[in-house]
Amino acid sequence: MNQILVTKLKKSKNKDTRIYKFQFVLSVAISISLILVISYYISSINQKEKLSNKLIDNYNIAKLYATTNTKANIEENEVDNNLFGIIEIPKIGIYYPVFATLNEELLKVSPCKFYGGNLQSYGNICIAGHNYNNSKFFSNLPLLEINDEIFVYDNSGKKYVYTVFDFYEVNSSDLTPIFNYGAMSKELTLITCNNLTSNRFVIKAKQRSHS
């Protein structure tokens, strides 16, 4: 009787050992898969930022060799003829080219303008950028505060200074940040995602000067 009991206990122990081994191997496999996915995600973001920085370099080279009399010469040398200008926010270390149009592929590379006219005209210029929950692109936009400065450079190198006057969140279907602006004001609206709530984080700024 004791021999039968010992045999059963050994079988049960062997079974438990196999289960533990299987669980261990499965855990290791899942962990490796997660590490590979995260590594690929980070690498992809870094590659996009490198491309964005390359666009900046090409943009600056085009301006350097363009004559001061021919703005058209700059525009002909723009990368893909699709740059609206450059956005700089010193407080959060932003310095990126801004595409003149928006689509998902361009948005992966750099911020995109999706509404508004030129920097000289009255109205509201809206620029969207990805939030990767790190220091890249518009991730640190929520750190901005009232009176912080935003610089936007047009394709002739002219600098426009904007001052933040409001910031808030809206749901993803709320379009009021785009269309809510003064008729005789020159405003800038920056938008990025809040990845925790699926809302949109909005920064509103007014043009103060240009040079």
Quick gist of this model?
The protein is of the alpha+beta class and 211 residues long.
How is this structure best described in words?
The structure is a single chain. This protein is 38% helix and 29% strand. By secondary structure, it is of the alpha+beta class. The protein has a domain of 131 residues: Sortase (Sortase, Chain: A), CATH 2.40.260. Strands 2-1-5-6-8-7-4-3 form an eight-stranded mixed β-sheet. The radius of gyration is 26 Å and the shape is elongated.
Strand pairing plus helix content: what structural class?
alpha+beta
The H/E string reads: HHEEHEEEEHEE
Please report the distance between the alpha carbons of the first and last residues: 97 Å
**CATH architecture label name of the domain at 80-210:** Beta Barrel
Number of helices: 4
- CATH superfamily placement of the domain at 80-210: Sortase
Our Rg estimate from Cα atoms comes to 26 Å
Strand order of the largest sheet: 2-1-5-6-8-7-4-3
Sheet of most strands: 8 strands, mixed
CATH class of the domain at 80-210: Mainly Beta
Helix content: 25-40%
Shape, per Cα inertia axes? elongated
The beta-strand count equals 8
CATH topology of the domain at 80-210: Sortase, Chain: A
Mean pLDDT: 78
Low confidence ranges = 58-80
Beta content comes to 25-35%
What characteristics describe this protein?
alpha+beta, Sortase, Chain: A, 29% strand
Question: What is the secondary structure topology, with strand pairs?
Answer:
Layout lengths: L1 H64 L5 H7 L5 E7 L4 E6 L4 H6 L2 E4 L7 E6 L20 E5 L5 E12 L5 H4 L6 E9 L4 E12 L1
Parallel strand pairs: 4-7
Antiparallel strand pairs: 1-2, 1-5, 3-4, 5-6, 6-8, 7-8
